[in-house]
Amino acid sequence: MTTDSRTRWLALYVLCLGDLMIVLDVTIVGVALPSIREDLGFSEESLAWVVNGYLLTFGGFLLLGGRLGDLYGHRRLFLAGIALFTLASITCGLATTQGVLIAARAVQGVGGAVVSAVALSLMMTLFTEPADRAKAMGIFGFVASGGGSIGVLLGGVLTDLLDWHWIFLVNVPVGIAVLVLTLRLVPSAFERSENRQIDVVGALTVTASLMVAVYAIVNGNREGWLSAQTLGFLGAGVVLLVVFIAIEARVSAPLMPLSIFRIRNVSVSNVVGILWAGAMFAWFFLSALYLQLVLGYSPLEVGLAFLPGNLVMGALSVGLSAKLVLRYGIRLPLGVGLSLAAVGLALFARAPVDGNFVVDVLPSMILLGLGAGMAFNPLLLAAMSDVEPKDAGLASGVVNTAFMMGGALGLAVLASLAASRTDSLLGSGESNAAALTGGYHVAFLVGALFAIGAAALGATLLRSAPAGAHEGAKGTPDGAVASEAH
Q: Three-state DSSP class for 343?
């Protein structure tokens, strides 16, 4: 391996570490919420804002963060996002009041959105050869898909062994290391654009649209999905989105050129991403609730229960996934991976009240690890590989927004279905544990349907080509894949 090649791979690991911090923060808080509530005196309703404050700004600023990266340099925005996220993490970790914690979580979301929107673009710039890009995407895909379940593990360990403050303070040394290593290892390959106008009206409109929609989704269960508040905010989000599209069709320097959606793989992969994220969030959150509330696991035990799936996912993402994509293209590994994940979720739908880890939990965890490890690489490749370098940040922001909105909406729908079924079973005289389990069963079945739907769309509608195949695939093991690129 040459010095230049070694530096590129080290740079990739730095980008992955930065992105992992961001992905972890979506789920690491979950198992610590009871401790945070007790320590800071949150009510049940106000406690939700420890999560929702992050989700609102994260979802709202993804598109803007990606476009700013295209205009002003991806590395510059990555550094700014990491710095902001790290400073907000210090504030979260030292927070002694509810208001400070929620406000700092919102700032974390802004920093996280910027990092997530440009990290993938930087990785695509570092690796242009098909074989290297596929391998790099496998590693990056593991971070994107495995980070959520790793967050459950790390949150359990830190909360049990130390206290909840450390789920935030652990970001500080990591963030500082990422800043220093990015400056040393990640090249600044930014070409100054002649047109550096920012579509301010479009940016404000789409950010408002996303934030209003996320607000409606995360509060839908509490307020009621057919309540005036929920429908009003969802309607406002849709109206703002329509206004944004109209603006983008007319301005000379749009925030999001609508032509990007004429690229079939971009459009299809984003729809697949929405469905798949809904299924993944069912795994991260609902299985953790089943383990805690039904089987009585401690936070640490919940985290350890996710470990087998994480190990399988990591081994597949880093090793086999890239080889499968290079040999078979995008469609087959994606379809098989999502189908395996669907089976894993379906198995959770039969887990009993007195479930045994080896019999009722482990098989699902392994299948979900296999599925995610196999599917994320081709899905990210499909979303990014046909996009011009000048729009890489935009495409990354769009796919991250799809995952974010899909996850938030999917989890809200599944949690609502689970709660409705649980209430029905409680009303018919079932025990609390049995009613909870029955509710989770419905949610897992619907999550499995999300995954099957994503598998069918990806396997039939995506163009099957590994990243970079359109640039010439002389280095690929299977020349047949390159011939499918156009």
A: helix
CA distance 401 to 360: 33
Q: Say how far apart CA 14 and CA 401 lie, in whole Å.
A: 22
Structure tokens that stand for 446 in this block = 């619907």
Length of the chain (residues): 486
3-class DSSP state of 385:
coil
Residues 216-255: pLDDT tens digits?
876 776 777 788 888 898 899 899 989 988 988 888 777 7
At residue 296 the predicted structure's pLDDT band, cuts being 50, 70 and 90, is confident
- Residues with Cβ < 8 Å from 209, sequence gap 6 or more? 237, 238, 240, 241, 243, 244
The span from the CA of 11 to the CA of 182, in Å, is 7
Q: How many other β-carbons are positioned within 10 Å of the β-carbon of residue 70?
A: 24
C-alpha dist (Å) from residue 349 to 148, 149, 449, 486: 21, 19, 12, 41
In 3D space, the residue among 28, 17, 22, 23 whose CA is nearest the CA of residue 139 turns out to be 17
Angstrom distance (rounded) from CA 19 to CA 150:
13
DSSP 386: T
Exposed/middle/buried for residue 220 (C-beta within 10 Å: 0-12, 13-18, 19+): buried
> Which of helix, strand or coil describes residue 467?
coil
The count of C-alpha atoms lying within 13 angstroms of the C-alpha of 27, restricted to the half-sphere facing its C-beta, is: 32
Alpha-carbon distance of 83 to 180, in angstroms, equals 11
Element (H, E) at 238: helix 228-248
Is there a contact between 90 and 174 (Cβ–Cβ < 8 Å)?
no
* Residue 319 in tokens: 């090793």
Nearest by Cα to 27 from 383, 286, 256, 296: 286
Both tokens of 461, joined, read 């509608």
pLDDT of residue 79: 93
The torsion angles phi and psi of 226, rounded to 5 degrees, stand at -105, 15
| DSSP 8-state code for residue 29 | T
Q: Which residue has the tokens 């669907």?
A: 342
Rg (CA), the chain: 21
> Are 109 and 58 in contact, with CB atoms under 8 Å apart?
yes
Residue 426 pLDDT > 50, yes or no?
Answer: yes
**Please, what's the largest Cα pairwise distance for the chain?**
69
